[in-house]
Design brief:
Largest sheet: 3 strands, antiparallel
Mean pLDDT: 81
Order of helices and strands: HHHHHHHHHEEHHEH
Distance between the termini: 67 Å
Oligomer: single chain
Shape: elongated
Number of helices: 12
Low-confidence stretches: 326-340
Structural class: mainly alpha
Length: 340
């Protein structure tokens, strides 16, 4: 039985000292009983290969010892779903926007492509990205590891009150306070917007004057129209506070049109002139050109952000509403089929 003794010794190495003798004695008795039963069946002593087979069935010494050890986690099963959720938020709020900005520069900015090679970005910008990513993920992991230790000692997650659970959320419901705020905000905006914002001179005070191109009239009336149409939309939502596919589609059309107008505004080189005391015409012209150029450069990033926002909110809402509308019919059909 030298092989069995070696096996038990390997298991003993991984066990807590205070429990080594008891656990090894229990295992030794159990395995020897199994060997004796097998020998009784065969009518002879087990050879080396047959003994190895029994020990292989038991498992590696480390794995066998692990069954007797207290289970320890860096982040246990209770907090792990929350940990994954937080990491997804980190990726969505930091890593994905960083990647989209980099792609936007590579695709839409010739100056960036001329001064930054892909290999240089991989060594420089991407290196800083991954360093920051590891730092952020490491920080989140350390925080949750600390929470795991605190939870294992105090069991603070077990102390909760069911009465404090949030109410059931209806995806179709529109909170009335949202409708009230929408009406008030649009009325306040209309009052401010109609107070001289139609003029091409959008600012004039203390010798400073900012003048826009005639294209401003188009944007002025477009924004005014959107604000006027939003008022009855919020009023209807107040008295009938639930989403329908039609209402969600109208909201999608509003948001898409508004995003389009804003993107056109960024690309219109809307600024014509800046006049200010102690500002030479040449310097003013450079400032105007810099502002218009930077607004145009921001266009692809704003367009991507608008597309993501509309897709996640408006399009997602319509998909959920359509799925919710068809599900009862599907359930009814399934029930009828079951009864038949």
């Amino acid at each position: 039985m030298q092989l069995l003794d070696r096996y038990l010794q390997a298991i003993k190495f991984w066990l807590p000292k205070s429990q080594q003798d008891d656990i090894v004695a229990e295992l030794s008795e159990d395995i020897r009983s199994q060997i004796e039963e097998r020998e009784h069946e065969l009518g002879r002593k087990l050879n080396q290969a047959e003994l190895e087979f029994i020990l292989k069935q038991r498992g590696r010494p480390f794995l066998v010892a692990n069954r007797y050890l207290p289970q320890q986690y860096l982040i246990g099963p209770v907090l792990f779903p929350v940990y994954k959720f937080v990491l997804k938020i980190v990726a969505l709020c930091y890593l994905v926007p960083w990647l989209l900005v980099w792609v936007g520069f590579r695709v839409f900015d010739p100056r960036y492509r001329a001064t930054h090679t892909i290999s240089g970005d991989l060594l420089g910008a991407w290196g800083s990205l991954w360093m920051t990513a590891f730092l952020v993920i490491g920080t989140v992991t350390a925080i949750f590891a600390g929470l795991e230790r605190a939870q294992s000692k105090s069991k603070f997650l077990e102390n909760w009150n069911p009465a404090k659970l949030p109410p059931v959320r209806d995806a179709r419901q529109i909170p009335r306070y949202v409708s009230v705020l929408g009406v008030v905000a649009n009325l306040v905006f209309l009052t401010w917007w109609l107070n001289g914002k139609w003029s091409l001179i959008v600012f004039e005070h203390s010798g400073v004057r900012i003048t826009l191109t005639t294209a401003w009239q188009f944007f002025f009336w477009s924004i005014l129209l959107f604000s006027v149409l939003n008022v009855p939309f919020f009023v209807v939502s107040f008295f009938r506070p639930y989403w329908t596919v039609l209402r969600a589609s109208i909201q999608l059309a509003f948001d898409f049109a508004g995003a389009t107008i804003f993107c056109l505004f960024l690309n219109s080189r809307i600024l014509v002139e800046i006049v200010a005391p102690n500002l030479s015409p040449e310097r003013a012209a450079r400032i105007v050109n810099a502002i218009n150029t930077n607004m145009s450069r921001a266009l692809p990033f704003v367009a991507i952000a608008c597309a993501l926002a509309i897709g996640l909110t408006d399009v997602g809402r319509i998909i959920r509403l359509r799925a919710g509308r068809t599900r009862p019919a599907q359930d009814l059909g399934a029930a009828a089929h079951h009864l038949s």
